[in-house]
Each structure stands twice: as structure tokens, then as C-alpha cells.
Amino acid sequence: MAKTPGRSDLLAAPNPASPQDIRNVVLVGPGGAGKTALFEALVAARVPGQRTGGTDHVRTTRLTVASFESGGLTVNLLDTPGYPDFVGDLRAGLRAADAAVFVVSGADDVDRPVSLLWRECAAVGMPRAVVVTHLDQPRADFSATVDTCRRTFGDVRATHWPVIEDGAVRGVVGLLTGETSAEHEDARAALIESVIEESEDVTLLDRYLEGETIDTESLLADLRTAIAQGTFFPVVPVSPTTGAGVDELLRLVEQAFPDPTRHPLPAVTTPAGGAVKGVACDPSQPLVAEVVRTTTDPYIGRLSLVRVFSGTLRVDEPVHVSGHLGDFVGHEVAGHPSHDDDERVGPLASPFLDGHRPRGTAIAGDLALVSKLTRAETSDTLSSCDRPAVVAPWLLPEPQLPVAIRAATKSDEDKLASALARLVAEDVTMRMEHSSETEQVVLWTMGQAHVDDLIEQLADRYGVTVTAEPYRTALRETFVRRCSVQGRHVKQSGGHGQYAVCSLEIEPLPRGAGFEFVDKVVGGAVPRQFIPSVEKGARHQLEKGLLTGHPVVDVRVTLTDGKAHSVDSSDVAFQTAAALALKEAANASTMALLEPIDRVDITIADEYLGAVMSDLRGRRGQVLGTEPADSMNDGVATEGGWTVVHAEVPQAELSRYPIDLRSVSHGTGSFVREPARHDLLPADKAKDLLG
């Protein structure tokens, strides 16, 4: 491979001639399984001079991409975070790839979230393979791990077996191609039977059962076809430390993983929702591409990782940018407003870890980095200006963990708004709101690690220091008993004075009734032109609150009597008198606080149902009912053994629920929520607030 002109430290970008020369592969799996170490070992095996990062790896929080040549093909390898808080980058990696490698530890069990991800890939027909790492650890057992994978994932089979000497993996043996021994015979026989079952040759099984020796090349051909079709799932032992199994895995990628033409395209429509013709993984067709991730480089500026589904992306060519995320999720998404713009494509590059290798085009099926694409955000579609298109975005869970932040200094405050706007546009799993009631800037996130990462980004990338503070729920005040009061506003200070007296009767209304004003004045005690002033003053004071500064709801105010002056009465005077009357009526015996109640739907594995129900009781939650879960949970396929719990829970008790539910359910639970109503805050919790 030739060096890039002017860049002696990087090899030239791969330049695939057709989509058939491309392999897009994503590494997925739990945190700590060794994905990043495997990623580095795979890259180092094919890129001269590239080194691995050693044995110490920090937790991956970002999608990392490396494009390199392997066996005459272009491999776009994607490393995803294993921690659930960074699901946005995981989803982006799945969207950009055509096949997935599940990385599991040979020294640990396969957890439930990984099995859910496997089923999700199965639902879209994505070919998969399993890599077993950490086989050099004392309690590691490759055979037991394969059995666990079979119970968890289904029909997976080992295609290679590790050679372990002195506690280290020194090599791997191909069960079809290597020199196997007696210890491998059972695994080899099981593999052959599985391959034969997947073969398109219907006579092969009978011939095998009759004792005929099946040609190895025929078996390998059937094996590769089944892997590419996503009907057979190989298990390969790999040691990133010693390099054992790395070449075998790369050959599997080259020879058995599908090219982009064999992967189904996502749904594509016009911005108006109509059909789009001619979309295919073909460089000659109209352009359809998607921004799967957006970042900001301190030297280059904005960088967009783009997956080209159809056509060819070219430098300096005008493209249409469509963003309609809100149309798919059912509500407007902060930082992602619906838009349709034309923009010229900036410099293109092949992604390679932290380096960028310039290129002129990116054909259908390939990945590319686009610089300075100012109007495109994550999940936006790039298409031909004369044939605008919209790609249906990938499914993402709603962020459910709120954290309130405030700028540390006035200087930080001046920069905070623009920095947050940039982060929201880049991260589709983050939502921001500014609450006028609590006067807090609230970030809705996926979990505590996500919170910590966002705060770190604000400091490192934008020089903004923020501190987190307790998230406050927006309460309401209400009257709980009937009372009668008089508001009197009489002032004389030269010139026209101010005179207004109004008698009000205040009574509570049922929950959700809102505010009601009734006029029962007789005999003209309050002139007709000032009655709307009384209502206006009452409404304004109720909106500001009476005891705690929270709005007053579910109350009827009746004007029963009053007095006016022919000269000194005015609109403002009667507004003030009404406000004074309400303040007079407000005290701890006449009023109570209402807290917001959310309706929550929790999807949970049956084995954790009891723990979840118990936890809900501790949160003052009311369980409304349960039902078996549908076949899909947040886009993840489920296969029985799951329950949806419907409940109502005070919003204040949900502020840390994403973290607690993950703990209670061992990472398997998920929930959605929506506002239901306001209800009385228990007296012990309201006492301090009401004084």
C-alpha cells in the first residue's frame, strides 16, 4: 500500500472498486470482554507498523472505526462501547455494519443484555460470529463457554479450538482444516453435522449418515455460505495478547462475512413519505447515505461518519440534507429539528482510529468521514439534490435519567448554551430541557456514566465547567378546604389614589379540573368593568404560587362582594386586591402540595419480577397490572419469559430509577414513562415546604 502524499505516518486510504470488495464488521459485547484489545490486534495484524495498546485498556465510551486492507478487501472495523450508558454509539456501529462479532469472555458467563442484542441482530437478519477471549485466565473454559453460548444464542458451533500451553493461548486448530486430535472429535463431528444441515445439497446428510467422507472444500463452501446468510454462527477462540486466532478470524471476515450488497437496506422514503425508486447498493444509483455519528475535532472541526447505502459520495458535490427524526419518534427532538437543506460535501477521508486518510469518493457500501458538513446532524440523510430521500433512523431508547447542571462561573455560563447545543446535536441519546418552574438546566441521559462523560466533554472540548445538583420536580399547590377572605387595597398618596375591595370564596376542585372563576356579585358592588380585573389578578397570583412559589391548580374562585370608588378604583387596584385576598387565604391548614405522578411501563425478565415489584412499593408506586411482553422490547426481540409491569410512581421517586432498575434486573430491565397527573404529596414530605 502506498503512502499518502505529505503524510508519512499514514498509509493511503483503501480504495475499493466495488461494494463486493467491502466488509463492514462491528465488534459488540459486554464491557470488559476484550473488544478493544481484539480491535487493536485485528488492525495491527493487517496494518504495518500499527501497535496494540498493551494489556491495560480504559472503558470505551466512543465508537472507533478503522478502515484497512485485508486479503484484497477493504475492511471497515468498528469497535463499540460495552457499557449500556453509551448505547447511542453501539446503535451507530450496528447501523454502519453488515455483520457483527460478539466478543465474550471465556472466564465469565454470557449476561442477559448480550443475549438481547443477539436477538436484535437476529430480527434484522444480521450475520454473526462469536469470539471467545480471556482463555488465559485461571477459571476460563472454552468448551463450557461454547455450551453457554449455545444455550444463550442458539445454534452456534466452534469452528476452531484453542491450543493452551502454560496458561496461555499459543494457537488455534481449525476443526475442519487443522490437524485435530481425539479431544476435538466430538466438536468436529457436531460442526460437520451442523454445516451439512445448512447445505443446499439435500443429499449430503444422507450420504454423511451412510458413512461417506465429505470433501472438506465442499464443507467449507457450505459453511461460508451459511455464515454469510446468517443461518450459521461460528465460535472462534482468540487471544489478542498472543495473537492466536487473529488471522483465523480475519480470514473468516474475508471469506465468509457478507459484502454490503447482501445486507438489506433500511427503509427509504421521500421527505414527504413517498416511495423512492432505484435505491440499491450500487455506485451508479442515486445517492442515499446516512450520518451515523457526528463529532467535533479540535483541529478539523465537525466530522460526520457516513454510511453510503446507494450511489457515490464525492468531494465538493452538492447534496440534499434531510433531517426528520421527530417524524419517526412521534415528537420533536431537541437538537434535531426537521429540516431540508442543500450543502456541498467537504473533504472526505477514510476513518482510521484517530487519523484521517484523504480520499476523493466513497462508493455504495463504504464508510467515510466528511469534514465541515455544517447542516447535517446524527441520523440525517444525504441524497441527490434532484432526488431527496430520508432513511428511517435506527431505534434508540429514550434517555430516562435526569441530571440538573449549573455553570461554575459567569464565564462558563456564557459558553454553556452553545456547548450543550453542540452535544445535543451530536448525541441522539441525550435530551436537554430548561425548566422555567425549577429554573434548572436538565440533561436527560442514559445513566451515571453518560452523565460523567458529558460533564467531562464540556470541560475538555468546550472549556465549560459545570456542577451537578439535585434534580427538582415541578410541584403544584392546591386548596384543600373552603374558605372566605377579603382583599383590600386602599392607598392615597397624592393625586389619584388606589381603591379596591373584593370578597372571595375559595374552594377546591377535583384533580385535573384546573381553575374556575365565578362571578356572584349583585347590586353593582363591584362595577362590571372591574370583574375581569379580579379574575386576571387571581389567575396571575395563582400562577406565581401562594406558599412555595409553585402554581396553584384545581381551585374555584368566586367573587361574592366588593367595594369601589368612583375616582380611585382601577384595573390595577382590583387585580392587586384579588391577589391580596388569595395570599390571605393561603396557609398550611387551607393548602397542600401536589407532586407529579408518572405512568411507567417496565419490561422485565420474569426472574426479576418480584424484585421489581418490591422496589416499586418502596418508591410509593401503585402497580396497575402486568401482562406478557410483546415480541419486541425497545426494538429488541424477546422470546417469552418477559413481563410488562404497568404502574404509577411519583416522579421524584424516579430520578435515579434507570440506575436502580439496571441493578435490580441485572441490566435486563427497561422502562418508558409519561406524565399521568398530580396527586397529594404526603404530609411528612410537604411539612417542611409548607412551613
UniProtKB/TrEMBL annotation:
Keyword field contains GTP-binding: yes
Keyword Nucleotide-binding: yes
Residue ranges constituting the Elongation factor EFG domain according to the UniProt record: 592-689
Keywords, alphabetical: GTP-binding, Nucleotide-binding
Residue stretches making up the Translation elongation factor EFG/EF2 domain: 472-590
Domain of life: Bacteria
Protein name: Elongation factor G-like protein EF-G2
Organism: Terrabacter aeriphilus
